[in-house]
Amino acid sequence: MPGKVADYLRTAEMEPAERAAFDQGVTVRCGQGYILRVSAVPVVHRQLLVPGQPLDGVQGAPAVPAQRKARRGYESRVSALAPIEA
To answer: How far apart are CA 66 and CA 5, in angstroms?
Structure first.
């Protein structure tokens, strides 16, 4: 998970399973920023995307391009993990 997304999610409301996975993540420096390695099943990663949706920009609140790019990159990696089971 990109650091810009992780910074935003630190203050977001999450379910207990999501918060536990997030809190156990390991910070890894990369370039000028960092990533947060979160070991969890794909369902938890998909749930972590929900509170981060405001990073894409909501009506009346502009999105920061770097945050939007980070969230979309994370979303594309999560969607590639495994197909959604019905």
So the answer is: 10
